[in-house]
Amino acid sequence: MDSAGNGFAKSLWVTTAEPAVDAPALTGGIDADVVVVGAGYTGLSSALHLAEMGQSVAVLEAREIAWGGSGRNGAHVNPGWKVLPSAIRAMYGKERGGRVVRSIDGSCDLVFDLIARHVIECAPRRAPYLRGAYGKSGIREVENWVREWGEAGAPVALKNAAETHELMGSTFFHGGMEDARGGSLQPLSYAYGLARAAMKAGARLYARSPASTVARDGTGWSVTTAGGAKVRAQYLLLATNGYTDGFWPGLRRQIVPVASLQSATAPLADDIRRAILPGGHHVSDTRNTMVYFRVDETGRFQIGGRGNPFDPCRQDGDTHHLRAEAVRIFPALKDANWEFDWGGLVAMTKSHTPNLVELGPNAYAGLGYCGRGVAMGTMMGKQMAELVMGEDVPLPREKMAPFAFHRFRNAGIAWHMISGRFLDRLDGWRSGPDSKGMWR
Ligand SMILES: Cc1cc2nc3c(=O)[nH]c(=O)nc-3n(C[C@H](O)[C@H](O)[C@H](O)COP(=O)(O)OP(=O)(O)OC[C@H]3O[C@@H](n4cnc5c(N)ncnc54)[C@H](O)[C@@H]3O)c2cc1C
Questions:
Q1: Nearest Cα to Cα of residue 345 among 306, 376, 296, 378
Q2: Nearest to 185 by CA among 172, 176, 194
């Protein structure tokens, strides 16, 4: 596998995954009903669902199967977008917004149902998602989440400081909330499992086959790879997320790619392991400079977060700040043996929501999960497949809407990260507990 400077081959996931999916490079010319570009969760889920609905599908992957975010992520299967149900209804209208909210609500179930149905070996764990609240604004954030998702019928619960400390095994956060829809898994093995299921259902997967140019071909599309091979298809689906390149003119400006870095320890000693997240929760927090962490089934502590503000797309960047943060939250990790470092690109959008973009006749892109694509990428892939089959899917189709000043994006990211750090500190200093043990 390619490893040069991209933080993939050094990952915990590559070391512990089920055997990699061996897909050939495409040569010559082939026909299909649908050509999918990108073999992560989005592309593989669309390929699997389409093949199961009787469509002939060809998937083109520039590198190896699941080489992108799907093979590198934090392993958290998280419900929900960054924006709340009320904002989603305000954006898309009551009826459409309600359908979007219901499909988000079902996205974690979709992942675990696929794992069960296709017997995917990926260490699935259905323990709740725990969100640590930091400072006043963090408490407000979890309160809003619990109120809104609670009203939508989701199994969510607010936790005061003492309850959070007990669930976490740390006194670092000021409160929190638990969302029982979540879970975790071995992300690369999950992607390999989707790929194998898609192939079994008849989809053709091609690795080392970067889609390079695209042209209209009658009523369909003709995609040519960098090696000169060709796929002709009626439908074109782009599933390239944080790794979107210049293949479709302008699409890379739909998103801002940002690196997320991770570090993992060797399996912890039993006493430390029992004290950290004793209920098997996976955690992220409410800060602008949030981190996400969990203990895996072998007892490794694994933490992720943003990289260097001045080199925000570097995927193999220094992770010392993440290790230091782990020790701040869990002092017992001070002598931990950190064994793995890796990273990858997440895709941020203007709306902070995933985008289903209509590129042209029978051509769509699904991308922009803002760091929450395990469940939502799988759901997006399913809905793109249903769209091809003529269904009115919940996610609204949007026109391409590129970021203005995209070329200055790294300056924007640096400003966001540095000012966010300052605001987080300010928020922590201003807080204190109320009579119910919630910090205000
Ligand atoms: C470090 C990290 C931690 C994360 N943690 C979490 C988490 O804990 N929970 C969560 O829900 N989400 C998380 N995410 C986000 C999640 O991993 C992604 O949203 C998700 O994997 C996106 O899947 P995808 O299939 O859309 O894209 P990817 O998996 O990124 O796949 C896109 C693929 O497209 C290929 N490609 C690009 N251009 C071309 C081309 N021209 N031709 C052919 N192929 C092309 C790329 O090589 C790549 O393999 C994390 C992401 C990262 C990087």
A1: 306
A2: 194
Per-residue pLDDT tens digits for 359-399: 999 999 999 999 999 999 999 999 999 999 999 999 999 99
Angstrom CA distances, 158 to 129, 268, 434, stand at: 12, 29, 14
Buried b vs exposed e over 42-78: b needs ≥16 C-beta within 10 Å?
A: bbbbbbbbbbeeebbbbbbbbbbbbbbbbbbbbbbbb
For each of the domains in the chain, give its residue range(s) and CATH number, in order of start.
1-123+184-255+349-403 (3.50.50.60), 128-181+256-346 (3.30.9.10)
Q: What would the two tokens of residue 428 be?
A: 């922590």
Q: Give the amino acid at 62.
A: A
Around ligand 1, the residues with Cβ closer than 6 Å are 37-43, 60-63, 67-70, 72-76, 78, 210-211, 239-243, 245, 247, 260, 262, 292, 304, 343-346, 367, 369, 371-375, 377
Determine the distance separating the centroid of ligand 1 and the alpha carbon of 240, expressed in angstroms: 7
How many angstroms is it from 363 CA to the middle of ligand 1? 20
pLDDT digits (tens, 9 = 90+) for 278-318: 999 999 999 988 999 999 999 999 999 998 777 878 888 89
Collapsing DSSP to helix, strand or coil, 98 comes out as: helix
Asked if 233 and 223 count as a contact pair (C-beta separation under 8 A), the reply is yes
Is residue 134 within 8 A of residue 110, CB to CB? The reply is no
